[in-house]
Amino acid sequence: MSVVPADVLPGGALAVEEAGHGAAELGPRARMWPALVAVYRAQLSRARVARIPLLFVATFQSIGIMVLMRGVVDGGGEAESVVAGASVLVVAFVALNLLAQYFGQLRASGGLDHYATLPVPPAAVVLGAAGAYASFTVPGTVVTAVFGCVLFGLPLAHLWVLAAVIPLAGAALAGLGAALGLLAPRPELATLLGQLGMSAALLLGVLPTDRMPEVVRFGRDLLPSTYGVEAFARTFGAHPDWAFVAGDLAVCAGVAVVSLAVATWAYRRAAVR
Question: Is the four-CA dihedral 62, 67, 71, 75 of positive or negative sign?
Fold first, then answer.
């Protein structure tokens, strides 16, 4: 029986090394913008059927709150705060509450492993999901704002500012919701945190600030949705101070960048575990 060196066998180390030199390289990772658009479209189509009923719930909830507050608030600055707060509450319900539940369930069910195998940047996954959920808030927010203006007799001339309030406040709240869902150790805790965040947006955004204690006002300043509420409420005046409106929107934008960055880091952290 002849002895053949192992290096020349088909499965030997030399053969494997030579085959490795001829192996095809993996394709490059997808670029940020195409990957973001793909994730956004996928999330939008998957969530459309399930989230539309919840959007009606969020809209009717905000409208019901304004109807109840109509018996307490007559008009003026308090009415402006109620309408602006109820409108942004629709954004908080979807972008913060539902997104926290989604990422909490995705992490618990192992769904993050599917995204981890795709050649897409982690930021595209977070931004795509956040953008899809925030998009569902547009019709409900507009309907709530128009109803509130008619109910309290407020002008409708500057409702166009919602085109800036919805994406900026939605991005800030969506980033916060995604971070809560990804950092929560259990999906039940993610649901609880999302509901607590929405409750905070309800109590601190809808209730007039003049009737709040100083400690509560400080907590209100820490809530991302507060600056969207303030920006929208300032536009109801006869002569809005657009510098302050722009300042509030700039704060929303800054918080959105930070919260989405934290959510991206939380996604990377959860995906490798």
Answer: positive
- Exposure class string for 155-185: b at 16+ Cβ within 10 A, else e: eeebbebbebbbbbbbbbbbbbbbbbbbbbe
CA 81 distance to own-chain centroid: 22
Taking the C-alpha atoms of residue 268 and residue 116, their distance in angstroms, rounded to an integer, is 9
Separation of alpha carbons 75 and 263, rounded Å: 39
| Dihedrals phi, psi of 87, to nearest 5 degrees | -65, -45
The full length of the chain comes to: 273
User: For 147-186, how does the pLDDT look when each residue is reduced to its tens digit (9 = 90+)?
Assistant: 999 999 999 999 999 999 999 998 899 889 999 999 998 9
For the segment 190-201, what is each residue's pLDDT rounded down to a tens digit?
A: 999 999 988 888
The three-state secondary structure class of 122 is helix
Euclidean distance between CA atoms 179 and 16, whole angstroms: 44
pLDDT band at 251 (very low <50, low <70, confident <90, very high): very high
Task: List Cβ neighbours of 201 (8 Å cut-off, separation of 6 or more).
Answer: 88, 89, 92, 96, 173, 223, 225
Q: Is residue 125 within 8 Å of residue 155, measured between CB atoms?
A: no
Residue 190 near residue 180, CB atoms below 8 Å = yes
